[in-house]
């Protein structure tokens, strides 16, 4: 796939801080001591990044350095405390499309899926909610997404606990792609898998990038995985 010279997304001086929640005892202690502010954890500090359409960008660092937080900010899961995430090529698109343009594939494929929801429903839920697919077509749509991720349509009727780790990760990929994103944020997406399954999932990402024109942000702590 050809990489364009124009940016798909720009991260401009993004800072993200978290304030841990305070329980009743903390609030009482704060009232007694006069210290009412919670300790603030700064996960990101004035980060700049530019990702061009068609690129595969590797984001590597040790645990706790803010990689996942940056990925979640770009995907719109977290709002930056300061700074901006700008999509220059999407200024004329509808708000709905803007919200869906980046999707995330998480590290733990089990905890990222609703254990009470069948696979097919998990895949079609967002497209149906956003009016991209009619309810009558949801079943066939989910089957198409599963096939694209390398799974049989029969998996649509199963629950996450009935799948292997590699199969669950393929379901997570199918769910992310179901809303036709431009950018896929892969947050340690193969770290929890066996080595042989890791290679299969990485090959799947490469094929999807070629077939769908995807841009990938690949977050990992493992240089060996990023270099594949």
Written description of the protein model:
The longest helix has 18 residues, at 195-212. α4 (119-129) packs parallel to α6 (165-177) and α5 (138-148) packs across α6 (165-177). The model has no long low-confidence stretch (mean pLDDT 87). The strands form two sheets. A four-stranded parallel beta sheet has the order 3-7-6-5, with helices on both faces. The protein has a three-stranded antiparallel beta sheet with strand order 2-1-4, with helices on one face. The protein has one domain (7-226): P-loop containing nucleotide triphosphate hydrolases (Rossmann fold, 3-Layer(aba) Sandwich), CATH 3.40.50.300. The protein is globular, with a radius of gyration of 19 Å. It has helices spanning 24-33, 67-74, 95-100, 119-129, 138-148, 165-177, 195-212, 223-226, and strands spanning 7-18, 41-52, 56-60, 82-86, 102-105, 183-187, 215-220. It is α/β, with parallel strands linked by helices and 228 residues long.
Topology at a glance:
Layout (H helix, E strand, L loop, with lengths): L6 E12 L5 H10 L7 E12 L3 E5 L6 H8 L7 E5 L8 H6 L1 E4 L13 H11 L8 H11 L16 H13 L5 E5 L7 H18 L2 E6 L2 H4 L2
Parallel strand pairs: 3-7, 5-6, 6-7
Antiparallel strand pairs: 1-2, 1-4
């Amino acid at each position: 796939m050809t990489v364009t010279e124009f940016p798909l997304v720009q991260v401009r001086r993004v800072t993200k801080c978290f304030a841990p929640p305070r329980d009743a005892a903390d609030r009482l202690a704060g009232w007694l001591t006069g210290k009412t502010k919670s300790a603030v954890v700064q996960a990101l500090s004035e980060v700049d990044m530019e990702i061009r359409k068609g690129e595969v960008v590797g984001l590597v660092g040790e645990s706790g350095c803010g990689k996942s937080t940056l990925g979640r900010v770009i995907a719109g899961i977290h709002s930056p405390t300061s700074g901006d995430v700008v999509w220059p090529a999407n200024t004329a698109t509808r708000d709905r499309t803007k919200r869906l343009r980046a999707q995330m594939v998480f590290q733990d494929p089990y905890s990222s899926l609703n254990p009470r929801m069948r696979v097919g429903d998990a895949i079609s839920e967002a497209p149906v909610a956003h009016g991209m697919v009619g309810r009558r077509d949801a079943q066939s749509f989910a089957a198409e997404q599963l096939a694209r991720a390398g799974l049989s349509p029969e998996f649509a009727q199963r629950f996450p606990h009935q799948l292997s780790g590699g199969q669950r990760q393929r379901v997570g990929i199918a769910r992310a792609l179901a809303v036709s994103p431009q950018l896929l944020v892969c947050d340690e997406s193969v770290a929890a898998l066996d080595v042989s399954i890791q290679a299969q999932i990485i090959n799947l990402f490469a094929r999807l990038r070629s077939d769908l024109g995807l841009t990938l942000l690949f977050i990992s702590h493992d240089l060996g995985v990023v270099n594949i």
